[in-house]
Amino acid sequence: MAMFVAQTEGKLKDVETFQRFVAGAEVNVSVGVSRLGHEIEYITQLGQDPFGEYISDFLKQESVGTNYLQYNENFPTGFQLKNKDSKNDPEVVYFRKGSAASQLTREVLAKIDFSDVDVFHVTGIFMALNDETFQLTKELILKAKKAGSFITFDPNLRPVLWGSQEKMVARINEIASLCDFVLPGIGEGFILTGYTEPEQIAQFYLDLGAHGVIIKKGPNGAFAMWQEQDGIHTLDAPGFRLAEVVDTVGAGDGFAVGVITSILENLSMPDLLQRANAIGAIQVSHISDNENLPTPERLADFIKDHTQEGATA
After folding, report:
1. Is 24 left (phi over 0), alpha (psi -120 to 50) or beta?
2. Is residue 271 flagged as an active site residue?
């Protein structure tokens, strides 16, 4: 989506000037993975309109692959408004109902070749738009699994899109059961499983069929539980200390970037959690959803310059 961020504090109805960005969880992840030097393709549908052209140009500038980008002249590109609030999470209003992305059809399945895809990343947002996008998400995952791709899933809960919490929980957990790594936030884990402890949430998803679970705990870092040939392992890694948190939107997407690129680079779990926590921390220090995503050099400098306690197994 296009995103317009208020330039002054206050309610959206009172704001007169905005700055334009490109937003969306999947876009954020795509940009982050590309900036860390990996090839990535982004699957979406845009309207045949100025917002669509803007997003397409942005993806190309960020070296995000557009081979699976489609246009639809009958439906518009979605957009959102976000206010500026230094004391609370920002107010975000979406204009995405009936968007071109929500009208993406199963025809895209035939166009996608997963034979050389190492990791396929999915969020719970696109699948929440309607029954067709849910089925398309499921079929894409099954096709990726058949081709041998490693599948990561960020539930990224958007209750307003689902209609009911019962439907959201059932469908999110159905998709999670098909994926290799599930990446819920600690609050999302409670909504989806009824458990409050990271170990309980992680075990819930391992029992469903996931091979690993990484739970985001915000400033408190992350907890991982995963299966290897010699059994189940756990690791708790604290977060990075920051002088100021500017905007929490996009932190989970940055975390996912750390997980995905670590898998691509065959990093150990301690290094994976350190990278994911670091990129999440970098994200909350800037108001844009993806402008602050780091290059390898900036990521290394951030980790070097910020104190992190040792992880405990």
Report:
1. left
2. no
